[in-house]
Amino acid sequence: TLRFSSSSSSSSASPSPPPPRRLPPPVPLRDLLAHRLPLLHSPAPPPRSSPPVHPHADLLLRRRSGEATPESLHLELVKRGLTHDLFLSNHLVNSYAKSSRLACARQVFDCMLERNAVSWTCLVSGYVLSGITDEAFRVFRAMLGVGSECSRPTSFTFGSVLRACQDAGPDKLGFAVQVHGLVSKTVYASNTTVCNALISMYGNCSVGLPIQAQQVFDSTPVRDIITWNALMSVYAKKGHVVSTFTLFTAMLRDDSAIELRPNEHTFGSLITATTVSSCSSRVLEQVLARVLNSGSSGDLYVGSALVSAFARHGMLDEAKNIFLSLKERNAVTLNGLIVGLVKQHCSEEAVGIFMGTRDSVVVNADTYVVLLGAIAEFSVPEDGLMKGTELHGHVLRTGLIDLKIAISNSLVNMYAKCGAIDKACRVFQLLCTRDRVSWNTIISVLDQNGYCEGAMMKYCMMRQDCISPSNFAAISGLSSCASLRLLSAGQQVHCDAVKWGLDLDTSVSNALVKMYGECGARFECWEVFNSMAEHDVVSWNSIMGVMANLRAPIAESVEVFSKMMRSGLAPNKVTFVNLLATLSPSCVLELGKQVHAVVLKHGAIEDTAVDNALMSCYAKSGDMDSCEQLFSEISGRRDAVSWNSMISGYIYNGHLQEAIDSVWLMMHSDQVMDCCTFSIVLNACASVAALERGMEMHAFGIRSQLESDVVVESALVDMYSKCGKIGYASKVFSSMNQKNEFSWNSMISGYARHGLGRKALEIFEEMQQSGANPDHVTFITVLSACSHAGLVDRGLEYFEMMEDHGILPQIEHYSCVIDLLGRAGKLMKIREYIRRMPMKPNTLIWRTVLVACRQSKDRDKIDMGLEASRMLLELEPQNPVNYVLASNFYAATGRWEDTAKTRAAMGGAGVKKEAGRSWVTLGDGVHTFIAGDRSHPNTKEIYEKLSVLIQKIRNAGYVPMTEFALYDLEEENKEELLNYHSEKLAVAFVLTRSSSGVPIRIMKNLRVCGDCHTAFRYISHAIGRQIILRDAIRFHHFEDGKCSCGDYW
After folding, report:
1. Keywords for this entry (predicted)?
2. Does the pLDDT at position 514 exceed 90?
């Protein structure tokens, strides 16, 4: 003040004062500290004389020049008794905090007798700089609780706290909003520094459009270059390239008093915007031109951003040139180049660049993170695993693994992508601390590699650790629930998603649709789909895939596809594959051709998966000509699925020979046959009992080293059991090293089909002891075994056991129980179980009831049989099987008038019953017979042999069972009809060709009648040979006058 007054008086006396200085001359630090230190000499020095040198002033000067550590400064303060000094104590807290010695900083802070805003701010900023945001928030809350005037937060305090909120991310958005509210009540609401911190915070914490950040920017009275850069950075990181460049243009045109020139941070945001968004490389080239004109191309930050951007855009040569032209490079520069190369699938080259520059560039923890990401994308996983193991050893030796948790997370991801799941789990188990990324990584790793149970266990452990799930964890958890068909667990994950707002994410909703669809919850699936705010292509594909799996009506699937087209979204290959899968089971040829036309329109015909789906659709529709034409058109890009679709198409349409020829053609076309091909052909051989062909495929499977595959072995068990070789099936089953549900089910059903019910139940008990979980198919086979063996009580016990295994009985299980009770003649029990059914009886139930009534000797069979026949003809009037069953029932009960009416109604409905036929396979091919057939070239010999055979068994005691001649004829005519049934003609034909002792194998498309069953027992004894008869229901092994079914069939 004295100086200012002196200058004023002299200036009034002088006519020409000197020009004023913009800034006052710098004041020596000693002068600034003099008033805080005790004076050694005179108490009142002259105003213009230099202050005396204070003995403690050198403490801060030495600290400023870097000659002393915080510990030495602390020691000097203690020695000189200055620990009570507020200014020096604040300086000491700040020194410890900046050196990341937070424990020491907190100790000094706690010992201070007096604190002001600077004291609190130094400690808060120290925690923020070290990334300990939760402790920073606690200190800030304690500061607010003091309430003294000198401890009120300053702009620097608010800036540090807001930076902590920014680092914490969206989880701390609520707390950050409270801090903003507190700021608005202070004088710092219009402070530019605080406003800049608010913009950056909202940009990092908010999800979606940065509306709040824009509002803070608009309300900032004075905007400097940092303000503009902060908002540009927010828009750039969120991928809003138009908003970023619009803001940049507005900044250049701003006419405020502050001169705004783009700096390295401005260009960094522009470059980031071109990288994050999907804009063309021309925009990036324009930004590069602007950078070159401004002279900022040599800046390390800008150069690093340019390297990363050009690499991510695939302009690798430009990225390398910029990298090499930089005089100074750091870890960020190298990391950007590596990330860009990985994005362009050049992972091996990225690792090579790291190896070549690691001696000239000081790398950081992030470098190892991106390097592990590059190794994980190696084209040869084995090479990646070797490199990754080497890098793992390096980070362990150097202690880098404890420096940043992201390194450990990247190790888990690297091992998983290289196929070493056990090592990935081991690294995760050894983690001392786990963040959300750690849990996301291990859950998704286990889910994607088929360890769904492990994925769900990790998800539950994450929730127990109070870690909120992210959308990635929710998607992986839902995927695992879908694979395991765990509806209840999926619903719990759904609750988590709703609780944390994750269900608003379209990808999470898509996963929910798939989960509910895979678990069969069709209503919930549609509820989630309809509640979605917006649908993308994946959403529509997911719901169409669910409809295909659940066999939804074609009209509904076509309507969903039409809605997708009307929404403006273009279908992709998954859309067409799911749509065609919906059409295939229903054989709608014209609709399939229309879909084919849409495929051509959208240019998806060049995709092999779509072509395969079209082939399958044409094959299921019976149009093998179109199927063959499409197969020939894709000759240059056929895969295993193409061949399998063609082969299964031939089999579906009854062309077994063409299917076998296709197998041989596939073998000679250098196409590797997979287990699916073998299983398809083996299933075809099983369906027509082509034992020789099946054994040929078995031999070829052994030569192809596929005989140890669980799918192939299970198909072999099924094939041998359906071809009558139950002993071979048992040997294959016993030799299996691994068994799945299909293996167990095939063996159980095989024994049941051959009348070995007790053996089937032994296998079921063995299955349970092995730890394998029975499914709904398992219980169908077990109940069927009990039915064929007459084990009524055990069958009912197994039926009640289903709920213990978490399986709800379906219509097929109730049908087996009704069949079980019907064979035992317990018609009243049948009524009881029909009433227990949670669903309405369908045609399957009524057919079973009708067959049971026909076989039963119970007096109630008439009423129940009449009801069953009436319901069958009402539910399916176009199915000829229903008319045949009703007619046979009426005939068996002597109601010949009703029999005639039923047959007349069948003719009026325009349906035709399938003729009963039997066939045998000999060396010269397959020989087929129908009842009374005289079309065979050897008819004369067959009938002569059959006449001799009938007479022979009559002499042995055989009496024709004329009740099985379901016509109102004289007894002699009925006997003649029974003599010429197709299976008797078949056995007579075999006897005309061969007299050796090998078993006679006969196949029949319908159920064998009681008379033929009795006749075959006598024939087997008369000719001394085993007869194996497979009808539509089961196998009968006739030997020495006995049948394997024990006459209970």
Report:
1. Repeat, Transit peptide
2. yes
Check residue 515 and give its pLDDT. 93
Gap between the Cα atoms of 259 and 267, Å rounded: 17
Task: Kindly write down the DSSP assignment for every residue of 338-354, as one continuous string.
Answer: HHHHHHTT-HHHHHHHH
Same domain for 312 and 384, yes or no, is no
pLDDT band of 942, cuts 50, 70, 90: very high
Burial 90-124 (b: 16+ CB within 10 A, else e): bbbbbbbbeeebbebbbebbeebeebbbbbbbbbb
Structure-token match 């979980």, residue found: 773
Is residue 366 very low, low, confident or very high in pLDDT (cuts 50, 70, 90)? confident
The answer to whether position 788 is within a domain reads no
Distance CA 898, CA 592 (A): 43
- Residue 923 sits in the same domain as residue 1039: yes
Domain end point (choices 297, 328, 359)? 328
Q: Model-level pTM?
A: 0.59
Provide the domain limits for residue 993.
Answer: 918-1043
On whether both 393 and 299 belong to a single domain, the answer is no
Where is pLDDT greater, at 860 or 681?
681
Q: CA neighbours within 13 Å on the CB side: how many for 585? A: 12
**Average model confidence (pLDDT) across the chain:** 82
pLDDT at 21: 38
347 with 319, same domain?
Answer: no
780, 809 contact by CB (below 8 A) = no
Contact 302, 264 (CB under 8 A): yes
Residue 619 φ/ψ region, left for φ over 0, alpha for ψ in the -120 to 50 degree band, beta for the rest:
alpha
The reply to whether 324 and 293 lie within a common domain is yes
Q: What one-character DSSP code corresponds to residue 17?
A: P
In this predicted structure, the answer to whether residue 1046 has a pLDDT above a threshold of 50 is yes
Provide the 10 A C-beta neighbour count for residue 986: 26
Residue at 1039 is within a domain: yes
pLDDT given at position 881: 79
In terms of domains, do 260 and 306 share one?
Answer: yes
Number of domains in the chain: 3
Q: Are residues 355 and 322 in the same domain?
A: no
Looking at 53-67, 294-308, 371-385, 644-658, which range is the least confident one? 53-67
What is the 8-class DSSP label of residue 1029?
A: E
In a domain, 808, yes or no: no
Whether residue 1011 sits in one domain with residue 986: yes
Q: Which residues contact 607 (CB under 8 A, 6 or more apart)?
A: 573
Q: Are 122 and 160 in contact (CB under 8 A)?
A: no
What string of DSSP letters covers 636-680? GG--HHHHHHHHHHHHHTT-HHHHHHHHHHHHTTTPPP-HHHHHH
Q: Confirm whether 907 is domain-assigned.
A: no
C-alpha to C-alpha distance for 454 and 448, rounded to whole angstroms: 11
Tell me phi and psi for residue 920, to 5 degrees.
Answer: -130, 150
